[in-house]
From TrEMBL:
Signal peptide start-end: none
This protein's name: ROK family transcriptional regulator
Disordered: annotated segments: 1-20
Organism, scientific name: Leifsonia williamsii
Similarity section: Belongs to the ROK (NagC/XylR) family.
Organism domain of life: Bacteria
Classification lineage: Bacteria, Bacillati, Actinomycetota, Actinomycetes, Micrococcales
Stretches of the chain forming a coiled coil according to its record: none
Ranges for domain HTH marR-type: 28-78
Pfam families the UniProt entry points to: MarR_2, ROK
SUPFAM superfamilies xref list: Actin-like ATPase domain, Winged helix' DNA-binding domain
Length: 396
């Protein structure tokens, strides 16, 4: 029996007894905590449909047994009790691969980060070599933390590209073409652990509703703005993957009639006018030399006119694309992630303007737009959350 399945003993002897009902209610709370992360007792009651009194009694009993731990917090201006799963010794690993980095996170099932490190990778890196480096980094992190390999449940891997969920294979269209054709078996051979895989924007969305300040939001669009522009969707509290898993390709939404040809083969896609690469190219014309992301951030925060124009044009186009999606799914929240979150309102204001011009008034008025609360950590934390949620299989 794994530590995960041992959180609660399964299968009551008498399924009609009060003890059996209490046991089933305990399982509901454990499953909710695995899926949603640390939650207040009020959130547990809303999420499971149990009464607040029932939740309070069960939490008290599980805390006494060491299944959960509790701590006082303030929620909506009121004192509350935060509940999280106790440390069972199981470890979830999240690994996020970007254009020039891999970030690895080790987490408990209670969503507590044990270790976190980032390793720089060269632009256009060789994928097998990068996987070998990431595997060595993970081995070192486990050894330094005194963790046995047997304690690792799985490694969640985030990749910036569409993934065929039927086969776990990275498809054509990835912002990093080196990854195209890489599949689940390749990753498992490299890490020597079970692996779960997902698109980085999907993982960013998952992180926001489990780790972030927006924990518990049920209908969100997470938009990652980088060299590509992708969106992760949470609908009715669940990640949305569509038929194949190819969802949220916001960067390939046409926004300019007769625009330039995109790498996807279409014309006038959002990525051709609003990716960080295009923004930096535009900004470079005003500096008579190459501009970096740090230049764009600095000049945007300093209210430099050229930078604000570049950011404003890109933001309005992004808002236009978001507005088209918002009219279809009516999100409560749009969260902007990626390397430009430090721009804050300089980026959010034109995105809001683009949304207002393209969404119907009631949707635009009720859709909140904010930057990620997790910065560059979102995708790796989302990868760890994916592993934690897959731990539910151990309880079924």
């Amino acid at each position: 029996m794994t530590a995960t399945s041992g959180l609660l003993a399964r299968g009551a002897r008498n399924p009609g007894s009060q003890g059996a009902l209490r046991h089933l209610n305990q399982e509901r709370l454990v499953e909710f905590l695995l899926a949603n992360g640390p939650s207040t007792q009020a959130e547990l009651a809303r999420g499971t449909g149990l009464s607040t009194a029932t939740v309070s009694n069960i939490v008290r009993d599980m805390a006494a047994k060491g299944v959960v731990s509790t701590s006082p917090v303030t929620s909506s201006g009121r004192r509350a009790l935060l509940v999280q799963l106790a440390d069972t010794g199981d470890i979830a690993v999240g690994a996020d691969f970007g254009r020039r980095h891999v970030r690895i996170v080790l987490s408990t099932l209670g969503y507590q980060v044990l270790a976190e490190e980032e390793l720089a990778l060269p632009l256009g890196y060789d994928v097998p070599s990068a996987l070998a480096e990431a595997s060595a980094l993970l081995d070192r992190m486990l050894a330094e933390g005194g963790h046995d390999r047997e304690s690792v449940l799985a490694v969640g891997v985030g990749i910036p590209g569409p993934i065929d969920r039927r086969t776990g294979t990275v498809l054509q269209g990835a912002i990093l073409p080196e990854w195209v054709g890489v599949n689940l078996r390749d990753l498992e051979n490299a890490f020597r652990f079970p692996v779960v895989i997902d698109n980085d924007a999907n993982l960013g969305a998952l992180a926001e509703v489990t780790w972030g300040a927006n924990r518990g939001a049920r209908n969100i669009i997470f938009v990652k703005i980088g060299s590509g522009i992708g969106a992760g969707l949470i609908l009715n509290g669940q990640p949305y993957y569509g038929y194949l898993g190819v969802t949220g390709e916001l960067g390939h939404t046409p926004v300019v009639d007769q625009g330039v040809i995109c790498r996807c083969g279409n014309r006038g896609c959002l990525e051709t006018v609003a990716s960080t690469s295009v923004m930096l190219e535009s900004l470079s014309r005003s500096t008579h030399g190459p501009a970096s992301t740090s230049d764009l951030l600095r000049r945007g925060r300093d209210r430099d006119p050229a930078a604000l124009r570049v950011i404003g044009d890109a933001g309005a186009a992004i808002g236009q694309a978001i507005g088209n999606i918002a009219n279809v799914i009516n999100p409560e929240l749009v969260i902007i992630g990626g390397p430009l979150v430090g721009l804050g309102e300089a980026l959010l204001e034109p995105i809001r303007r683009g949304l207002q011009h393209n969404a119907i008034p009631i949707v635009a008025a009720t859709t909140n737009i904010c930057v990620s609360s997790l910065d560059e950590r979102a995708e790796s934390l989302g990868a760890a959350a994916l592993v934690i949620q897959n731990a539910l299989a151990g309880l079924e």
